[in-house]
Design goal:
8 strands, eight-stranded mixed beta sheet, L-fuculose-1-phosphate Aldolase, 258 residues, alpha+beta
Length: 258
């Protein structure tokens, strides 16, 4: 039996969770690579994330053209090119979030302020998140939206092999190997930004080191993600479908494994 109904249900849940945690509001979006066709991805039609349901999910090729049958009525997101370009450039990426995370946006415009992880829960964003400026290649007459494949590819190039990239005067993009991972990281990236603003007001900031980032990212496994995802589902009244509960390195050697 196909797992697609549960997969689509989780994509709906991801929309609602991101809205609940103030990562997206009426705008922003989350997608997954199609589990049965890696050359396609799944993304809601243009709708506020908190309102998304299964009937809104559309299927796209990596050039961000609508494909498949029984497509949702209505307009697709104008910035769907972010998702297609990243999936095309990064075969390892299985989920993408684009947001206007309010505590993150200030770091996209203040050149003297570095944005990176200061708390272990946000470690995978890295020590210094790259910042994409649309004006560098496309001039100062755009509305800052990513509305073409060329723009999407340019953003994907700035993202590189990182888990996140800032977008000057706009927001951010976050990627992950699973839907749970990208939602988890998007939430903690926003929290990290809020904490960083507070910390910088207090004095000199100590960011996580490259070794600490690597150790935390390597240890981010099913047990951690499932613990978060179950809680997120309860917060928004959505069904929880358990997945793998493996533990990453770094847990106490005396913890039971069964």
């Amino acid at each position: 039996m196909s797992n697609m109904p549960k997969i689509l249900d989780d994509l709906v849940t991801a929309n609602h969770v991101l809205a609940k945690h103030n990562v997206v509001d009426s705008f922003g979006h989350v997608s997954i690579r199609h589990p049965e066709n890696p050359e396609h991805y799944l993304l809601s039609r243009a709708r506020a994330p908190a309102c998304v349901d299964q009937g809104d999910i559309m299927e796209f090729a990596l050039d961000s053209k609508v494909v498949g049958h029984n497509q949702a009525p209505g307009k697709p997101y104008s910035e769907r090119f972010i998702h297609g370009a990243i999936y095309a450039a990064r075969p390892d990426v299985m989920a993408v979030v684009h947001n206007h995370s309010p505590n993150v946006v200030p770091f996209t415009v203040v050149k003297s302020r570095r944005f990176g992880a200061i708390m272990h829960m946000a470690a995978p964003i890295g020590c210094c998140v790259p910042n994409w400026d649309i004006a560098t290649k496309f001039g100062d007459r755009t509305n800052l939206l990513v509305t073409s494949n060329d723009m999407g590819r340019d953003l994907a190039a700035t993202l590189g092999n990182n888990s996140a990239a800032l977008m000057r005067g706009h927001g951010a993009v976050v990627v992950g190997k699973t839907l749970r991972e990208v939602v988890f990281l998007s939430i903690y990236m926003e929290l990290n930004a809020e904490m960083l603003i507070k910390a910088q007001a207090m004095g000199e900031v100590t960011f996580l080191s490259e070794g600490e980032v690597e150790a935390n990212a390597r240890g981010r496994a099913g047990f951690t993600l499932e613990r978060g995802w179950e809680n997120f589902c309860r917060e928004v009244g959505r069904p929880y479908y358990p997945l793998a509960m493996e533990m990453g390195p770094g847990f106490s050697k005396t913890d039971p494994t069964q």
